[in-house]
Amino acid sequence: MSVIDWTIIAVYLIWVIWDGIRLSKNTSGLEGYFLASRSLPWWAIGLSVMATQLSAITMIGTTGQGYAVGMSLLQQYYALPIAMIIIAVTFVPFFHNARIFTAYEYLEKRFDAKTRSFTALLFLFSRGLACGAVISAPAVVLSVMIGLDVTTTCLLMGVPTAIYTMFGGVQAVAWTDVKQMYLIIGGLTAACIALMLGLPETVSVGEALRIAGTTGRLQVFDFSTDPSVRYTFWTGTIGALFLFLSYFGTDQSQVQRYLTAKSIDQARSSLFMSAYWKIPLQALVMIIGVFMFLFYVFTPPPMLFNPVHDQRVRASARAGEYVALEQKFGEADAARKAAAEQFAAADRAGDRQASDAGSAAFNAEERRVQAVRAEAVTLVKEVSGDSTYNDINYVFPTFIVTHLPVGLIGLLMAAIFAAAMSTISGELSALSTSTVIDFYRRWIRDDDDEKHLLMVSKAATLFWGVLASVVAIWAAELGSLIEVVNRFGSFFYGSILGVFLLAIGWSRANSTGAFVGLITGMVVVGYVTIFTSIAFLWHNLIGAVVVFAVGMIVSELTGPRKPQSAVRRPQREV
Amino acid sequence: MTAMGKTYVKVAVVWAVTLAGLYIFQAYFTR
User: Fold this and answer.
1) What is the pLDDT of residues A202-215, one digit of tens each?
2) Helix axis angle, A408-434 relative to A42-53, nearest 10°?
3) Residues of chain B below pLDDT 50
4) Which chain B residue lies closest to A359 (C-alpha atoms)?
């Protein structure tokens, strides 16, 4: 990378710290620090929520997914607008009227301290580790691309984020998220335009998209009813509905954001920003992956996108095999390019028969290219001993550093940093809030010394920032282990939703029912995850239903709560 | 219907239009 690109990244990192510290002036007291004194406008909260969701993993992993298999993942987001309507009607008024700091606080008001502390602990455990993964996954890729070691890259992401989150609280998180979101959208749009301009002059964007379409990469609706298929219309609209209800309705990183709104309607409006824009934004990310595929159909791609493994194999005893594969790959790639040009020409001429033949020929050459690549991947796995090798995450960064002009490289790299930092900052703020409100103030020091609690809050933010960076550096070394830990976190996502649904939707539910239901739900989801092939998007639905059903039955058996003693329903907002 | 009720309907309509648009996109470019 050039000096100009490094300067852009450096300016971004310095600016983000300065901006966060500048906002620390407005954080007086716990409510100011954790909830921005419930004063943020809906559009800022909406952008902040979207920025938290759009992580660096999304930018490099999802574009890679679009490149390799296409846009089928988009179906995962189809239920999001419906989930937002349900949350706006149910969770938002309950949380707002309860005047709480954390979602888990509500569970003590409704059930007991045990249920609150247990769910808060699950959140801290899963989010604390996930926060490390949010840093490590992109850091591993970016370190290769920008020529820094992994530890330095992890620290470049983790330390500035911890600093501005610690000083500025949720106010700094939200306002830097807004600006980071502008940078991310600007970067993604610039990349998309650059990719379209990178197509040959003889092939229009429409013709290029037909080439992608013929490989199945533009399939955004799959109505398969096979429960083991990961992304279908049904997993996206039914299974994912429960994932989004769980994420936006019960995860402190999201709940905290809409608790910063001035009113219930402002909180609802902030959620509707995601309802309107999440699917188009995710489509933009995925179409970038598809355009990268098209770009590399007409521009010779590297056989493997991870240069570290590429160099390792070249230096090994099997370098000869690798070079022979490269030659085979070059021939297959050239044949694929010729087939693509023929297909585009037939499409342009409107010759249906030639177009069908061109489509078949292109797909045959595409399969040949993929077969050679698969051989190369097997060779890398054997030489490196890394059985999990996968270079999909390297496709977008490789395109950025090898094909974009100076300046735009820095902008895109800064956008990837921004995506990582906007996610981490939201998580750090939520982790700190839950630590202080659900544990420190609840169990250790329950007094009104705001100055002391604010100091503890800042220390907790710093603690989680340091821990996330350490976990990130450790995760970069251990790779697949952290994936297992993160998967363990998904065991209780749907179950936590079940507890909240029980709290809000079944007035006779008692604390015993809630706790037994929660444990049963987690065990069932754990069993389904380990012993069945049911796609993960169904796990949240299973967890929520089991918790709700078991919670209802146990509550009835152990002496149901009297309806008149249930939590008062929210009043209509004036 | 309240203002927020109208917003819920608007969100649902935009959702349906978005999915319909994606379906047309898929049908047009994938033969």
Assistant:
1) 899 999 999 999 99
2) 100
3) none
4) B31
